[in-house]
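A brief tutorial aside. Many learners find it easier to grasp structure tokens once they have seen a single protein encoded end to end. The record that follows does exactly this for ABC transporter, permease protein. Read the sequence first, then the structure, and try to relate runs of similar tokens to stretches of the chain.
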Amino acid sequence: MTNSFKKKDWIWAYGFVAPTILGLLILNIIPIFQTFYLSFHKSGAFGKGDKFIGLKNYAKLFSDPQVWQATWNTLRYMLLVVPPTIVISLILAVILNSKIKGRNFYRSVYFLPMVAAPAAITMVWKWLYNTQFGLINHVLGYFGVGPIAWIDDPQFAMYSVAIIGIWGSIGYNMILLLAGLQEIPKDYYEAATMDGATPIKKLFSITLPLLSPQIFFVLVTSIISSLQVFDTIYMMILNTSPAYDSTVSLVYLFYNNTFKYSDKGYGSTIVILLLAIIMLITVIQVRLQKKWVNYMEG
């Protein structure tokens, strides 16, 4: 009888996880193998008739200066976006976790960018950055500054795109960190107060150590997301823009080669490079987490 109940439990368990496993298999795992397979091929005329060419795509990849420029642009975007996003999200989460008036309203406002369409957000920012009619240059004009070509000048374009990335990511990360803050037992803070600990001391001795699992999760997901940046750059920076070379990302380069130039093989090779970079950075993070992430024992 006991074995029968256990068998039913296993059936129910597999039944509940089956949709997720099936989704991962169809949408993630199978495409990875297909991409790896295509990276050894070259598309024929009009993107049809794949021809096996061995390692020629990889040889072309390592000698292509545009690929390495796109790799640097992608890593640079990550460095510009991830640290400020985590710091600002953490500060906002700490503030909104305290008893302040209208905190539910502020939580909703900061989370709004996550529910808005990325294309709509990018179009609004593109208008704000407009050299001649943009609101930002209009305001700067009162101080005798400008006009600045925010999205056409290679000197400013990447920073302009990074600001959109930071603004769009803060709300989601803030909610995750806020959930972690609410899991920290209040007894720790009460005991620290009785010992005369200052708010700064509480932050570094209690909050950050106990929030480190959530910070680690936000760090990993933010890095992966930033390395896959595409839509913002695609909509902000045209191929003919002077800032194209200084902002084109690996995913943008993959899109151009695969869909504009109908070379799925070389596009797949670029994706494999991006996958290798993401895996390498993630493995390093997982190994380093043992030195600074503290998991509370239940």
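Self-check: The longest helix spans residues 2-38. If you spotted this yourself, you are ready for the next section.
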